[in-house]
Specification:
The protein is mainly alpha-helical and 438 residues long. 46% of the residues lie in helices and 10% in strands. The radius of gyration is 30 Å and the shape is elongated.
Length: 438
Amino acid sequence: MSMEVRTRFAPSPTGAMHIGSVRTALYAYLVAKKNKGIFTLRIEDTDQARLVEGATEDIIKTLKWLGLNFEGEVEYQSKRKETYKEYVEKLIKEEKAYEKEGAIWFKINTEGKTSIEDLVGPRTIEIPNNEQKDFVILKSDGFPTYHLAHVVDDHLMETNPVIRGPEWISSLPKHIQLFTSFGWEVARYAHIPVILGPDKSKLSKRHGAKAASEFRKEGFLPEAILNYMAFLGWTPPSGKEILSVTEMAEEFDLKDVHVSNPVFDITKLNWMNGEYIRKASDEDLLNRVDEFLDYISEGELKNTKYEDKEKLKKIIPLVKERIKTLSEFIPMTDFLFDKPEYENKEFDKLKIPDLKLALEKIQEKLESLEKPWKADAFEKTFRQLAEELKISVSQMFQLLRVAVSGQSVTPPLFESIEILGSDETISRLKQAISVVAP
């Protein structure tokens, strides 16, 4: 076996790529990068009954979006039936396998025990062979089972090490005996821990975990996802919390992966994504928002309200500190693109005794302010007006905010008004007056 490090991500296309699978792919990628090795993609599609249309495309698209670029062509196990058959025939000839009910079974040796040094931990795993039974290696439909296919492929593709989930630990005697029955060197295995939900059950949708493409639609950045997923089972020796993939590759080592099961925490992922958004330059964030809007609208937004790049450019620095995901950009800035729909309840929350009077006074002041409006003059004017109307300064500015946007949370008020322009701001004020005093 060559000493070059070759790792693979080998998912079954039984659905869109789950967020938990991102970690398996990432660890395999990091091991390859650290050792200047090769990272490949193999699609394990031998269980024909469980295949889901579009799943392979989703896996490839997701890996590319995450920047986990694999080398060479994608390998499909379903296209390698002849290879597996050849190896099965060899086992039958040597009386290590036999046919029963149309399928081919492997004869297990139940004596002694199977012992391996797992690269995670690192730890010794020992399993008594008498817990095993003969098992199917080639099904009656001519497709191999996982047990046979991965052993043959990992040998022929020189996978080193094999990184996978702990659900396969109990099958280790089967896999080790297959390697040795072919006279091959046994692969080195790393069984990474299972990710749990906060309630300590296996990670699922109810914990906020879903397909990686769903996280993309919600406006998570690929770097934030990779950074967060890397930490589910691993702590970098440097103790840093924010790491680029290059930095991760330098620090990552399978022996540092924890054996205990990590817990997926959507709140922490949100926080980390917010950190990445704030760290981005305005120009980078503009491009990310632009790509995101294009992605979720499948290209439809190119010729809509978001096509004005100059306007987007002005908005980006205003929202940067206020959003945790790119999707939050939309509700927070909608009023800058479309006229708001006013609801009385937003005005009622302000507890201002005479809303109509207050809004009319605001309109008067806006109309008398020298144009272009200056931030300091604007603030001074409305602080004075708050005093005249015997309301608090925060009530005054919240009223202005709701009057121009229809919502109580917006980017900074004056900068938003600057983007809207004085005519649009006054027109919205008139609209607000007609809503509170129809």
